[in-house]
Specification:
Layout (H helix, E strand, L loop, with lengths): L9 H5 L2 E4 L5 E4 L2 E5 L4 E7 L15 E4 L3 E4 L3 E4 L5 E2 L2
Parallel strand pairs: 1-7
Antiparallel strand pairs: 1-2, 3-4, 4-5, 5-8, 6-7
Length: 89
């Protein structure tokens, strides 16, 4: 049953804090996932904006972290390479 250690539900992932390994900055908690349904894989994780910046349509700008930037999923944190993090348009 060792495979079970590598399985996480969305609820589990949303309870883990996301941290940039380059800066040590806490980016927040997962708000949403972008999924490619044809390929059955996660494309990116969506995090709430850290700036509190509000867009023209009065929505907060979210941060999108490519799934390929996820380096480690631990017990209570997700470590990401924040180099290609951008505001979600």
């Amino acid at each position: 049953m060792e495979l079970q250690k590598d399985l996480f539900s969305l609820t589990n992932l949303r309870d883990m804090e996301v941290i940039d390994i380059n800066t040590g900055i806490k980016l927040g908690f997962i708000k949403d996932l972008k999924v490619n349904c044809k390929e059955h894989r996660i494309i990116s994780i969506i995090l709430p904006s850290q700036t509190g910046k509000v867009s023209f349509f009065n929505k907060n700008e979210d941060l999108e972290v490519p799934w390929d930037n996820v380096r480690k999923i631990g017990v209570d944190v997700i470590l990401v390479d924040g180099e290609n993090i951008s505001d979600k348009k």
